Amino acid sequence: MPVLSPPTPAPSPRLSAFSLSSIIDRISESDPAHVSRREFAGLSPPVRLQYLAALLSDCTPSELLFVSTTISPLLRRDLLRDLPPEISLHILSYLDDPQALARASRVSKSWNRLLNDQWLWRRMCYIHGYALEQDGHAEAHRGRRVSARHSGIEGCTSNMHTASVRPRHMRLIRSPYSSSAMNWMHGGKLLRTHRIPLVSTSQALVAPRNPADEPAAAPASAIPTSIALDDAWLVVGLANSRIHVFSAKTGVLSRTLVGHESGVWAVALPNALVVSGGCDKELRVWDVKSGYCIHTLRGHTSTIRCLRVLHGRPVAVSGSRDRTLRVWDIQRGRLLRVLEGHEQSVRCLDICGSRVVSGSYDTTCRLWDVDTGACLHVLRGHFNQIYSVAFDGVRVASGGLDTTVRVWDAATGTCLALLQGHTALVCQLQLSPTMLATGGSDGRVIIFALGASYQIVQRLAAHDSSVTGLQLDDRFLVTSGNDGRARLYRFAGEGGTGEYVPVRDLSESSDSVWKVAYMRETCVVMCKRAGKTVLEIWSFKPDDDS
């Protein structure tokens, strides 16, 4: 019996030669074997597609590969070349590395022309802290450089939008401020990592004790409750009644202030003084250099929950669970006046000039004149406890347990805006000249534009749990959360408009971050890590200034 070949799958249907020839015949009766490019260009789109399909069906695999390789470059589009120049420049503005810009300029002639735009390089100079100076006028321009730190890009390079070739008498200079900004972006120097002591150290104002003579303090007692930071000192108040003073320049523990009988809930650092208050109802004034307690001020009948010191004046304002605010002369150590009106605990304070705003569990904010003690406005609108306030002299912002933020006119006391977006307690607020930043227990940070509309500029899913710290300026936004992260964002914009772009985590992951605070060249992260209270002090000073 003959052996038959096994059946093979039927080939895919293809246009026959008769079909192809019939198409060609219909296209050109004069030359059925060939259609010129001119004739093909004159065909209607459906017929062109039909002809191409018939032609490709007769190609071999190698021919199809050749066609695919030839077509692939033709299908690519240069978006930067095809888009309007304004949009292309906006896309390129997200590059913050000058080497990346230089490499991009070598991609094509069109990219090179686009990247020769002076605005891109002027912005790059601003980001990296370069400014143009004339050799003979360095002193005259030094003040201009300093003002550029606050005014933005226009104060940085006033002559860069002229010719692309710089005159010989112009030179680029770099300020220490710009170097610190780069250190923030790429990582600074960890000065010290402290495990906050549970008992007094040998530098305390009392004699050191043998740890065996008394039981160890509970771990919860070392939780940081408050922080104050300036160029020279870092002051940390703890729930175990201690106040630790660190050098902001070296990170070394300078001394421990002992005197409070229970937890310290508020600290302030006006010049060379430390002002503190807490659960023992006392306000204490310390000399930061010697650690000596200058004054012990009594008057509150319950825990002092918040504290502020007027700028440039030896006057402190404290808020307490006894429903009152008290104004103190911390230089002479005496009570000036009592501000009464709240019906429940005073939870938060903020000060601008000689006026103070207080937020209370009675769901109201009050605006006071510190010098007279008069209540200027009662701000009503929240329907639950208020936990945070911010005041810039023009407007008052308040947030609380009702998940909303309200903005008030400080002059008239009227509500300017009701801001929504959080789904839990609003516990952090900060005002800048152009923006309002809010942080909530939902882990979100929301940036609102200040103006007639108070529109949401940006929503950040900053943390997986409650936001515990929030601070921003014209360069950066720093946040911390109970998820154990402290995060850095960079402001990408000009003239106060723009968004914050995530840069990196400021510290390694921990169980929880309790507090974060920073100044231009110093950052402090206080966290719980491996069951211990840890305080990290970072320096972002330029290398030649470290």
- Number-wise, the strands total 34
Portion in strands: 35-45%
Oligomer classification: single chain
Radius of gyration from CA coordinates: 34 Å
Query: What profile does the largest beta sheet have?
Result: 4 strands, antiparallel
Poorly predicted tracts of residues: 28-33, 132-177, 198-220
Number of helices: 11
Strand order of the largest sheet: 3-34-33-32
Estimated structural class: alpha+beta
Sum up the overall morphology in one term.
Answer: elongated
Share of residues in helices: 10-25%
User: How far is the first residue's CA from the last residue's CA?
Assistant: 97 Å
On the 0-100 scale, what is the average pLDDT? Answer: 80
Describe the structure.
This protein is of the alpha+beta class and 546 residues long. Among the domains are: 17-66, no CATH class; 99-159 and 168-174, no CATH class. The chain is 19% helix and 37% strand. The chain contains eleven helices and 34 strands. The strands form nine sheets. It has a four-stranded antiparallel sheet, with no helix packed on it. Strands 4-5-6-7 form a four-stranded antiparallel sheet, with no helix packed on it. A four-stranded antiparallel sheet has the order 8-9-10-11, with no helix packed on it. Strand 28 (467-472) and strand 29 form a beta hairpin. The longest helix is centred in the N-terminal third of the chain and has 15 residues, at 61-75. The radius of gyration is 34 Å and the shape is elongated. The chain starts with 16 loop residues before the first helix and ends in a 7-residue tail after the last strand.
